Amino acid sequence: MYYHLNCTLVNELKLNGVLIMHNHKKRILVVDDEMKIVEVVKSYLERDGYFVYSAYDGKTVISLFDKIAPDLMILDLMLPDVRGEELCEILRAKSKVPIIMLTAKTSEDDILRGLDIGADDYVTKPFSPRQLVARVKALLRRTKDEGSRFEDLIYIDEGDLIIDNLSYEVKKSGETINLTPIEYKILSVMVNHPEKIFTREELISIVLEKNFDGYNRTIDSHIKNLRQKIETDSKKPAYILTVRGIGYKFGVIKD
User: Fold this and answer.
1) What is the β-pairing status of strands 27-31 and 72-76?
2) Which residue from 7, 102, 190, 249 has the fewest beta carbons nearer than 10 Å?
3) Are strands 27-31 and 51-55 parallel, antiparallel or unpaired?
4) Domain Response regulatory spans what residues (predicted)?
5) Rounded CA gap, 10 and 223, in Å?
6) Taking Cα atoms as reference points, which of 238, 237, 244, 228 lies closest to residue 180?
7) Angle of helix 108-116 relative to helix 84-92, nearest 10 degrees?
8) What is the pLDDT along the chain (255 residues), one digit of tens a residue?
9) Going from the N-terminus, what domains does the chain have, and what CATH number goes with each?
10) In what order do the strands lie in the sheet with 72-76?
């Protein structure tokens, strides 16, 4: 189990391993068992001003994650000890950190599986480091201050669903639920435009931005995950409704 820290960060760590930040540079955790790939990605990210941590196996990530509190993670799926998919699920259960999966798995099923378990973006090998950095920038940009232009507190269905745009928390029946940044953005956009029908292309443009290069059905995976978290019965959704042949809209359905 081992990892690499950018040497410029050493004086920012307490002896107990808790990170104290003295600046606003974003922290990126790059996870891949191929050292050459890590070094290339690290070099390009540092060139753009990011702090970069590196890990080469899943156990290191699990032990390191809470200490460094990364702003974004680039995660290879084929690690030597823990499958990337399993690691993604473990982290997603406790964190909303944006995750970009980096992998040689290129089938549509693999991509949709990655999105189903909580990834925010999916980059296949071989890849362009410059494009990867662009995706990092785009993902950080769209997750920054999400909901800030919306109402601070939104009560839906007499408080059954509450969206707090100050703390970025969502509560269902009084319990806080853990949404990914993309899921939160979808919900915020749709709630603030009730009854508007969004096509898949519109949601991709708004939530995933124009540089998205993938399948239109990607948005369906995010909708599916969101429904499982905020609907009482995800098979009979009352909030995020399907408009056949067009897309989705937000509306409260009463029994």
Assistant:
1) parallel
2) 7
3) parallel
4) 27-140
5) 41
6) 228
7) 30
8) 333 333 333 333 332 222 323 345 788 999 999 999 999 999 999 999 998 999 999 999 988 887 777 889 999 988 988 888 888 888 888 888 899 988 887 677 777 877 877 888 888 888 999 999 999 998 888 776 443 344 566 778 777 888 877 677 888 988 999 998 889 888 988 887 777 888 888 888 777 654 454 556 788 889 999 999 999 998 999 889 999 888 999 887 554
9) 3-143 (3.40.50.2300), 153-250 (1.10.10.10)
10) 3-5, 51-55, 27-31, 72-76, 99-103, 121-124
Which residue in 115, 179, 150, 229 sits closest to 239, CA to CA? 229
Task: Locate 50 and state its tokens.
Answer: 């990011």
As given in the structure block, the two tokens for residue 210 are: 């124009």
Residues found in the chain: 255
Q: Are the C-beta atoms of residues 97 and 115 closer than 8 Å to each other?
A: no
Q: Cα torsion at 222, 224, 225, 227 (round to 10°)?
A: 120
Q: How far apart are CA 238 and CA 251, in angstroms?
A: 7
